[in-house]
Amino acid sequence: MVFKKMLSAFGVGGPSVDTVLTNPNTRPGLTLDGQVNLVGGDAEAAIEQVVIGLVTRVEVEGHDTEYAGTMEFHRMAVSGSLVLAPKQQLSIPFQLPVPWETPITDVYGQRLHGMTMGLRTELAIARAVDKSDLDQVAVHPLPVHERILEAFQRLGFRFKHADLERGHIRGVQQTLPFYQEIEFFASPQYASTIREVELTFVTSQRGVEVILECDKRGGFLSAGHDAFGRYQVAHTDADRVDWAQVVDGWLRETTSRYGSLRSQYGPSHGHGHSRGHGMGGMVAGAALGVAGGMIAGEMIEDAFEGDFGDFGGDE
Question: Are strands 194-203 and 110-111 parallel, antiparallel or unpaired?
Fold first, then answer.
């Protein structure tokens, strides 16, 4: 019996947890619904709490290094303390609100290359190893996001890659400790002035702040540089305008107004990106103590099964 108690203390023969999502597909501002299914182990178990949290992969830049880590950015307790009898089965339903700023992972049913998202369930067991479960989640665009992404495609831009950068964009109201960059190769009609464009959505209940970073080509006597533009869009505008025309206007304005934007945001500082500057001077240094710690980079990929696919290919 002593040996069995020791095994139990190490989580062997202890309770198990399995979370089932009613639907793993959601959108910013909606909910993820499901239930946490607990099954008791060989002995009675005192569970301190059951917590669910959204986790994703975030790029983090140090002074000379860049690495990816897994961050939990939104969590909710679905149960307080309870006692689970041996072999007892218990289901706890939940509705997790999805933050408005949650990054988009899927467009037209395809995973954006570079994005991961999961719902982690943690079972905190008194005096024992915590149990956990990870379920893949797909976050689809809201109508206004979809129209802007469609506009880039209609203008001939090709999707390259998406990732999350740790930090805050200066002057933008942000609630999460990272922002998403969706990168496109420039289409032929813009290729003489732009190499690539990075698109960032910072979404709220009212609408979306759209941040563009254009990697401009150098001219005969000038070096290439990054040009920034910021635009406010209401959710209600989704079906009211010709988005290809709007995005074309944004791009032309952004690339022609480099001087004033540069003074507004401060100069760009390179920070280890292979593509050069990233968000550069727009990004304020983020304190490392923000909610949700980082854990080893590969853990989230190991926990998800299968390939995430690709949206539009990667060069």
Answer: unpaired
Strand locations in 44-149 (E) = 45-61, 66-79, 82-84, 89-97, 106-107, 110-111, 117-125, 131-136, 138-139
**Checking DSSP bridges between strand 194-203 and strand 207-216, what pairing results, if any?**
antiparallel
DSSP 111-132: EPTT--EEEEEEEEETTSPPEE
d(CA 63, CA 43): 50
Angle at which helix 143-154 crosses helix 243-256, to 10 degrees, equals 70
Residue burial 257-268, b: 16+ Cβ < 10 Å; e: rest? ebeebbeebeeb
- The residues facing 39 across adjacent strands are 16, 89
First-to-last alpha carbon distance for the chain, in angstroms, is 59
Report the SS3 class of residue 207.
Answer: strand
Confidence of residue 217 (pLDDT cuts 50, 70, 90): low
How far is C-alpha 227 from the geometric centre of its chain's CA atoms?
A: 24
- Please indicate whether residue 143 or residue 262 has the higher confidence score (pLDDT): 143
- Specify the amino acid at residue 211: I
Kindly state the tokens that stand for 315. 């060069």
The CA distance from 177 to 197, in Å, is 22
Under a CB-based contact definition with an 8 Å cutoff, are residues 78 and 50 in contact?
Answer: yes
Q: Which is nearest to 141 in space by CA: 178, 173, 104, 168?
A: 104
CA distance 61 to 67: 7
282 vs 183: CA distance, rounded Å? 17
> Phi and psi (nearest 5°) for 260?
-70, -35
Q: What is the pLDDT of residues 175-216, one digit of tens each?
A: 999 999 999 999 999 988 889 999 999 999 999 999 999 987
Report H helices in the chain: 2-9, 143-154, 243-256, 258-265, 299-303
- Report CA torsion sign: 188, 194, 196, 201: negative
What are phi and psi for residue 248, nearest 5 degrees?
Answer: -60, -40
Residue type, 143: P
Residues 133 and 123: their CA atoms lie apart, in Å, by: 9
